[in-house]
TrEMBL record:
PANTHER family: CCA TRNA NUCLEOTIDYLTRANSFERASE 1, MITOCHONDRIAL. Its cofactor is Mg(2+). This is CCA tRNA nucleotidyltransferase. The keyword Metal-binding applies. Keywords: Magnesium, Metal-binding, Nucleotide-binding, Nucleotidyltransferase, Transferase, tRNA processing. Residues 267-374 form the HD domain. One of its GO terms (molecular function) is nucleotide binding. Its EC number is 2.7.7.72. SMART domains: HDc (SM00471). One of its GO terms (biological process) is tRNA processing. It comes from the Bacteria.
Length: 484
């Protein structure tokens, strides 16, 4: 955390900027309290970049709207039921929320909202002391109500100590909004902080409370965690407190699944290592997008098929077909978390293909095998490169170097073949219309079989030209006829 003088200078700069100064003056003129609150204050004090500005006010939503409409024509409701009004002002988008307190009924998936009359009342109901900070504007008064926590420590003190705790009793806070337990894990990873012991204990006791939160909200918080620079500590916290069991039980099942008589890291530790290495490769290779949530989910879940396929054979442990089983499990779990179909498809495909390369290191593939590898990966080829490289966690340096060199070689060959053959768009020389014309058949399954034959021919032998393809197609067709 920067010095207090530097922090206050950063906050003054924000307060003096447009549209903040304009908003502060407008609300003050109408007799309403107005404050910069939460994350922006926290990040300014920590010396982190401040990107989004969150404001809170004593004004009710209709009053906020009236004030904003006096400043700009571009005003809209973000969540009127939650007291949030937005506007475009001086080229900036702003959101302003009325002092509030969110609570859940025991059987509700959505918080109930009631409005408050003081900044202290608003802050004390916020998730963590480090977010229960407000800069009152325009007077530049810092409000810190974190001393209501059991420890007596305020938000500024917890920022200095690198601690995440709730302003009041953790059980009351998590009962009000169970999603805060996932947010604790996310902030721990994002800021490199520790979650206080009493807060962790409450997370354990109330883990099943997460069940009332909608899958969409859980998904969004999980994605935010995975998008941090180093999500590992947050993931560990979710597993250790039992929260992961509530929405991603396949991950916790990895903890007791050993790879090889327990001589290797358990599959859970291996999966975390793969995730860490994938994130590092994401940066080293200049991968786009970054953070790549699809890649990171696939890295974390790539071995979730192992518990279901573990067998003890001839004194060893095997996990035959865990790639295929894992892909099915990933597909089902991501759908339950309401991920979009594209993400589900991409992650499950990566999980299914993550073992494909390892045969290459034992025996160099033919050009046909390389073409099939590229064809099967499709648009996920670059992600598959990263995932496969990240999946090497052996402590045997010689083996690790051999695998690295083997993958360097396959990437080189893919590049050479792609340059020579436009490998990324491998198709037969003859399309469906031409196949029907040559064979004199109507649309139907036979056309598909013929197309598949030509595609396999293209993968095995590379480009052979339309004339040769037609000749081979006629020969294949004759064989089909004689076989029947």
């Amino acid at each position: 955390m920067r010095s207090l003088a530097e922090s206050m200078q950063a906050l003054r700069a924000i307060a003096a900027s447009e549209p903040v100064a304009t908003l502060a003056a407008a609300f003050a003129e109408r007799g309403h309290e107005f404050a910069l609150v939460g994350g922006p204050v926290r990040d300014a004090l920590l010396g982190r970049p401040v990107t989004d500005l969150d404001f809170t006010t004593s004004a009710r939503p209709h009053e906020t709207r009236e004030i904003l409409e006096s400043l700009t024509r571009s005003v809209w409701d973000v969540g009127r039921d939650f007291g949030t009004i937005a506007a475009q002002l001086r080229g900036e988008s702003v959101e302003i929320t009325t002092y509030r307190a969110d609570t859940y009924r025991d059987d509700s998936r959505k918080p109930e909202v009631s409005y408050g009359d003081s900044i202290e009342g608003d802050l004390v109901r916020r998730d963590f002391t480090i977010n229960a900070l407000a800069l009152m504007l325009p007077e530049l008064r810092l409000v810190d109500v974190g001393t209501a926590s059991a420890s007596g420590a305020g938000g500024v003190e917890d920022l200095l100590a690198g601690v995440i705790r709730t302003p009041g009793a953790a059980e009351a806070s998590f009962t009000d909004d169970p999603l805060r337990m996932l947010r604790a894990a996310r902030f721990a990873a994002q800021l490199g902080f520790e979650v206080s012991a009493d807060t962790q204990e409450a997370m354990v006791r109330l883990a099943d409370r997460l069940d009332i939160v909608s899958a969409e909200r859980v998904r969004d918080e999980f994605v935010k965690l995975l998008s941090t620079d180093d999500p590992i500590s947050g993931i560990r916290l979710l597993v250790d407190t039992g929260l992961a069991e509530r929405f991603l039980p396949e991950l916790t099942a990895l903890v007791t699944t050993q790879d090889d008589h327990g001589r290797h890291k358990d599959v859970y530790e291996h999966s975390l290592t793969v995730l860490r290495q994938a994130i590092a490769l994401e940066a080293a290779r200049g991968h786009d997008p970054s953070p790549d949530v699809v890649l990171r989910i696939a890295a974390l879940l790539h071995d979730i098929g192992k518990p279901a396929t573990r067998r003890f054979e001839r004194g060893g442990v095997t996990f035959h077909h865990h790639d295929v089983v894992g892909a099915k499990l990933a597909r089902r779990r991501l759908r339950e978390l309401r991920f979009d179909n594209d993400t589900v498809k991409r992650v499950s495909r990566l999980v299914e293909l993550h073992l494909r390369f390892f045969g290459y290191s034992d025996q160099q593939w033919t050009d046909a095998a390389v073409r099939r590898y590229v064809r099967d990966a499709g648009g996920e080829l670059e992600r598959l490169h990263i995932l496969t490289r990240a999946d090497v966690t052996t402590r045997n340096r010689r083996k690790a170097e051999r695998l690295e060199h083997a993958y360097d070689d396959i990437e080189r060959r893919i590049g050479e073949l792609a340059e020579a053959e436009e490998l990324a768009a491998v198709r037969p020389e003859l399309d469906g219309a031409r196949i029907m014309a040559i064979l004199g058949i109507p649309p139907g399954p036979l056309v598909g079989r013929a197309y598949t034959y030509l595609l396999e021919l293209r993968l095995d032998e590379g480009p052979i030209g339309a004339e040769a393809a037609e000749e081979r197609l006629r020969s294949w067709w004759a064989e089909q006829a004689s076989a029947h």
